[in-house]
Structures are given as C-alpha cells and as structure tokens.
Amino acid sequence: MATSTQCCPECEGRLREGESETVCGECGLVVAEDNIDRGPEWRSFADDETEKERTGAPLTRSRHDRGLTTEIGRSTRLKGRKRRRFARMRRQHNRSRIKSKAERNRVYAFGEIRRLVSALDLTDHVRDQSCVLFESAQSEDLLRGRSIEGFTAAVVYATCRTASVSRTLDEVVDAARASEAELTAAYDALNRELGLPTGPIDPAEYLPRFASRLDLPQAVERRADALVDTARERGLVSGRDPSGVAAGCLYLAARQEEYDLTQAEAAETADVTPVTLRSTYQDLRE
Questions:
Q1: Run of H or E residues at 31
Q2: pTM for the predicted model, two decimal places
C-alpha cells in the first residue's frame, strides 16, 4: 500500500490508499471506496498497440440475429475424436441458430441482399434498409407464392428509389438471380401493400456515374448538369426515362464543349436506345 499525505477527517491520522479503498491507519475509518478499474477499456489479443478494440462487432440489420451470434471455430490442432466432436457441435450449433422456415428464408435473403449490394457498389445504409424492408414484407406475408430472389432484388431496387440512389432496373436485374418479371412483380407488391415513398429519380443522379464510365472531363459534366436543370424547367423530364435524359444531356454537353462523344457510346452507357437519347437531345436543342 502507498502512503498518502492526506489526513483522516476524524482523528487527523495518516491515510493509506489501497487498490479499492482509502483507510485511516490510526482509527481504521474507510474514507473513500474506489472500485473503478483504472486499466485500459479495450482488449486485443493480437497487437495491443495498433488494434485497441473496445468491444465486438457492431449490431447490424443485415444479419438475421443482428450480428449477436457465436461461432465455433476450426483448428488444425484438433485430432481424432476431439475433432469429430467439435464438428458435431458446430453442426448442431448451426442448426440451432435457425428456428423456423421464415428465419431460414430470412438468412438466405439477407445473404443475397449483401451480395447484390456489393455487386452494385452500394452503401451499408442501402444494405441495412433493404434488409429492414424485406423483414416488413415477410411480416406482411407478401412472399407467399413469390420467389425470394425476386423479392431481394425488389427491396434493393426499392431502397435505391426511396433513397434517390441512381441504379436502373436493368442494372439490378443483371446483378440479381431473378428475372425482370419476378423483380417487377415483387416490386409492385411492395409498392401496393407497403406504400413505398418512391418518386421519379432525378436525371442528375446518373450524371457522375455515366461521366466516369465515358471518361468525360469535368467541364462536360458541369454543362450536362446545367442542361438537366433546363430540361426540368421546360418539363422535358416528366414521363421520360431519367437515364435517357441524363444520356441526352451528356451528349449535348459534349457537343457544346467540342468533346468527341457518339450517340451510340452515350446510349450504351445509359442502357437506353439511341432513339431515346435523340429525343431529349433534339428537344433541348429546340
């Protein structure tokens, strides 16, 4: 115990500080109790200097159990009977994690949503919101008679629509394991039963991606953004494919900036026909 220069409030004796309390050496009065652990609040088994982990992984909506699970690992040091026993324990543990068919469907769907989000280069926010939307659809019994793959693609597309993230229907279909008919049927059910707050996507949301794919300079992208504003003021955006409007504005901006860009290249990047592109292009020229 370390000796302190403080005095006891009762007998003015010398105080002594221990690990958890401060006592008077003369009369034995407990002056203060301190059970706070003064050590580090983080714990790391690998490198205490660079990996100061406070807790485990954060909670996530992209897992059916919110990420609160236990994994039985594998080790090459286990041999014979002990290795077989751990294999049985791991198998029984994996079975016990899923208690119903609905939960099994949710596990598969969340894995498919994570794959889709990764393939489409979307954010974690879109991933989590897509999983929440799938849970809502499952609780409303909308999956009956429909494919899980179609619903996973539909919730990702619906989340992109509600969050104003520029992903076309064809892009989602190309990355999904469902047909366009399955996706649209599931999306219609979501929109009808859950009342999704979806609106038309702003063509300006497509400009950065299309300009990056076409390797266009910043001047062309800025001019195209101004042309989208002009098209919106003239009422040329309503009722048209937003990706086609974006492609038409990029093509016209490239022409005005004297940058070499063909209609076929712009239309292929936006996944529209050259006819769709020319419709916006001609209206803006007029």
A1: strand 30-33
A2: 0.64
